[in-house]
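Field: COMPLEX_INPUT
Field: COMPONENT_COUNT = three
Field: RESIDUE_TOTAL = 1385
Field: MODE = joint
Values follow.
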Amino acid sequence: MSAVGVRFGLMATALVATLLAIALLAARPPTVDAHPLGNFTVNRFSRIELYSDVIRVSYVLDMAEIPAFQERGALDADGDGSVSEAESASYSERKGEELARGLDVVVDGAKAELRVLSREMSLPDGQGGLSTLRLSLLLEAPAPAAEARVSYRDSNYADRLGWKEIVVRAGEGVALRDSTAPAEGVTDGLRAYPDDLLSSPLDVTEASFRYTAGHGELAPPAPATPQTTPSALATDRPSGGFVSLVAMENLSLPVLVLAVLGALGFGALHALEPGHGKTFVAAYFIGVKGTGRQALLLGMIIATTHAVGVLAIALVTLYGSRFILPEHLYPWLSLLSALIVVGLGARLLLPALGRLRRWRRDGRHGHGNGGGHHHAHPAAPQDGRLPWRSLFWLGLADGMTPSPSALVVLLAAVSLDRVGMGVLLVLAFSVGLAGVLAGVSLLLVYARRLLDRFNLRGVRPRWLAGADGGAGLVGLLPAGGGLALVVVGLVLTLRALSQPGLPGL
Amino acid sequence: MPVSARAAGLAGPALMIAIAIALMAVALLAVGPTRGADHRDSPGVEDDAPADITDVYAFRSPEDPDNLVAVLNVNGLTAPPENAAGNFATDVTYNLHIDNTGDLVADATASITFSGDPLMFTVEGLGEPITGEVTPPSTDPTPPEPMVTEANGIKVFAGQRDDPFFFDLVGFKAFVAGPYVPAEGLRAEGETPAADTFAGTNVSSIVIELPVTALTGEATSDTGVIRAWATTSRAGSQVDRMAIPAINTAVIPSDQKDAFNQADPANDAADFGAAAQTTIEGLRTAVNGVLDAAVGPEDGGPLGSLTAEQVKDAVIPDVVTIDFSQPVGFTNGRTLEDDVIDVALQLVLNRTAGITDAIDANDVAFSSTFPYLADPHQPEAQPTATATPSPEATATPQLPTAGTAPGEDGGLSWTFIVVVGLGGLLAAAGTALLLRRRAIG
Amino acid sequence: MRLAAPVLAGLLTSLLLSLILTGLGLRDGGSSPAAVTTTAHPSAITADLVRFFESRVERDRQDFVAYNRLADAYVQRARQTGDVADYGRAEAALQASLEALPQDNYDAFVQLAVVKNATHEFEEALRLADEALAIDAGEPFAIAVRGDALVALSRYDEAQEAYQQVVAQVPGLSSFGRLAGLLELRGDLETAELMWGNALSSDSGRRPESTAWARVQLGHLRFSTGDFETADEEYGRALNAFPGYVHALAGLARVHAARGDYESAISLYDEVVARYPVPEYVAALGDVALAAGREDEAARQYELVAAIDDLYRANGVNTDLQMAQFLADHDLRPDEALRQAGAVYEERPSIQAADTLAWALYKAGRPQDALAFSDEALRLGTRDASMLFHAAMIRLELGDLDGARERLELALDINPEFSVLYAGPAAETLAQLRAAVRG
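Field: COMPLEX_OUTPUT
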């Protein structure tokens, strides 16, 4: 047997073993899967999310088999042994109100009214032919002040055994302080309990925290299904960490250095998050022949624009919000940025398309790129080279929508009387963000050069470059890059248009 | 048909994962069913912690070198949440015996008893009886202020303190039970690092400070020899006794421990000498069998090279001997700072090299004023959120009140390290680029 | 790569810096404002203890001392809350302890024996207690736990010997209480009473749950002799020692039911069953509901008992006699009742097992077979009204009218309200028998 054969054999064995193991697991009698916390637990989970003007509570009640069975008198109202749609709805409505009454949200000493926005109930299969009960509620209380101390208490099923967990997190635009609860849960909303035997179920029924609402950014997610809220918020994780930097105490030099490095890192991380400007920066640089110097310059432009943008929006938020609300400004900015991207893409695409047309017409033995083609677009890339003016627009497009987390940092800094620190961190954040984008551009600059020079055993492959180096794959790059830019720009435009706050849409 | 190394390298991990899954499946299948319990089960038998002496100390007072401080501790390993339950028993008499003639018969015995509510102590046998209030144990976040009773030139404290003993009992027990070549301290290779088993826990302490001359009967505090030991007794019969640390644990065979605890030092040599010597010899043989090859032969203990018999004579009878013409410190007395386990173990094994439990100091600093033992550990004012530390909980930092690098409960968050690392990387890259340009330019 | 070196250096420096900064006191300031645990409720202390030792074993996976203490805290918590899962946790902790120190680990063996007793693996408990005693001969806790296993295995003489030894060594609540329970079982109620007195007067109060346990046991004893007044008081004292103690609440409910105050009994049982839904209490709630004329409610509770039984069975939980007793009492599935009672009796022929088996045989229409087991159940002279009632009904069925009357009289003399379900029928039957004699 050849080496490949051996490899194949080993892999096959591994596969079979895995399948066997899975089959073995699957073959276990289903009855063995007890509720992980025991059959008579009543488990509760609260995720408190803070937005500029509301406090959202995603509440989950997970009843194991026995308490669920004890509920069936209330559930199965007509006593016919099955739970109808209507019975389930009326039960969850009643239960929802009942549970809401057991939750106390006290904002600055005053009890806030919790309203049930939506509820969802299911009866997942449990052990012994019984079902468990899972009720998810989304509740909301108004947050009357921009800054407040909040305490939360869950007094439902106080003396029942079970997992009791509270998570508190800030939505975009809100700074959270002194929270006694973690921002991340350990059970995925009571869906997966830790299986370390030597750790007891969480028993947290109270939390308190302070928050500062920075005239909020994004509106809270639409109250669809409560289940979707955790994942929708999962991406702003680094920003939470970033915000914490501004609140560091003992501002000694090393702490400051650490904070700045952290801000750089958070900026870089933010740039690495999916859906950010690096896609169109990359697309652009694929399409054009940039230089290393231009890549660095682009970074500087982005950093400057971003920092200035954040400062400007912060100023608007702080002083100009009587005239214009930042949340109204945001969609416009992103729309503008998206349109610039479309424009840049179009400028790249149109001449390239012209070349492409010619290339096809002339066939593979065509005569390179003829002149006189670019008269209609004086600013468009010449010979696939990147004009400086486009570079500026590119940087602007990327930097002009300030990262909400940077804005939050600045606002938090203002509320903490640490404006200097906030500006420093925002600058560092911007540099970090720009650095990554510049890095991406730099990478593509070199990649492009490599591609331009690439040859196979002394022969430059035809599919890569046309006979005279004008067409071929390299020749297609501007078209591809332009197309990508236009598509990305259009998507961004659509997304910007779909934001609330744009009139008539 | 040679097996391609590369192929094996690729398939290896896959195979291992598969095997791991299979093992997991089997383990899950093998988990036995939990079975019911009924509430008629009897509760646990109360241990006799209030009568169980954990340690005895005798040292010159840091405040007045003419005074001797004697410490008797019970209620070992009291965890802060159960502080309130850690107190002295009213049906137990706590005794400190002093022999100043060398006949191993007590010439003076200070007997401490407890009664009343609030709990009061009475010290008898040191002239006029001294009565004072016991510092009540508490579960408040701040430790209680020690109440000191002073009478006839004698200071007395009774109440909860930090356990001053520092010792990796975990490594020690494992090593003595079956000797191996220790990796760190007395821990075996691959185990968690040595830790002070008594860190963070409390004891109930009786601390008495009195003039040395009152004990020796000498004119000055620089002369005279005393032998001291402590006992507890209930209804006239002795429950426990203690003098030299770790002797009971290390050299008295387990089936004789009860008898030993109820015996008097005067009979020790006759009743337990032979057994102790056998234990010491056995321990040496077992340890030498392992360490001779790895570390080298016996290199002598802290008092020089001693035979098992000589060591036996040093530790039996079990009394603390203090020669006041010599500096007071283990083995001449015992101060709070003495690393007695290392010394005792080295003595017994006749080895110094490689014999240490790697715990060299107490977990908290001692006080320079009476009662010298550190304040008791109090239950942590628990932020409810840290009830169960979880990786997720530490991954997302919140706005901390004070300057935490955003890793909760002391752990360093990986997110934070990554982020700062990324920042550092970026800063370094930028600097490098700049430098490079300048160099080129 | 000219860039590689400075980049790497930068990365390492920043890593180092962050580590150093974190190490430098930056970490201790981070504590959030705290919910101070000044609550004196014993279960809060147990929860804190659990947390304390969980974090210790988290730090040092070899710390057998902490594992043993943690297991003890888990057992405490299981006793306080009825959360059987804690026994699983205790066992896991003890296995880890024994892995860290396989020899000379007395505490681990004795605690493991406690867990095995709690999960009704009595042979194993006995073996483990012996193992503990091999390490530390004469330790009272191990002897006591050994005695517990012996009682469960119906080896009453050996058990009593063990308990007496423990009483001699540690005269306290747990030792006297054990002896008292055994004496009760053997029908010596006077001495049992005396021992309970000793137990409570020697209580150190260090473990409030133990105090509550003893009070509840004494309450049960008083109840079984028909002395509802003092039973009520004992349950009240248990609740004083341990607020909300579920077994004390159940005891109170039973007293209310015996006095005919079904409404308060139901509301108490509701509370008990919400927190601690074991078949015994759920069935009791159903019985009271039935007595109060709420048949639907009763049926719902009986259904819940059946559901719990299904669950227990799915988990391999040994419900022991509770289920067999329930089925026989309610004339449900006589074959199943017989099978379960027989299985338990086979495993350990205690007097309770013999009694339940006799009752199940009677209900299955086999009074002839039942008689021998009923006699066996009463061989120690246990003054248990319920057992005597069973014996009486079996004799009645066999035509031994005098024997039946005698036992009914005794049963009702001991406790005229021994059962919500059967006290009434017992009194009626006795009246009929007396009438038959007269007539």
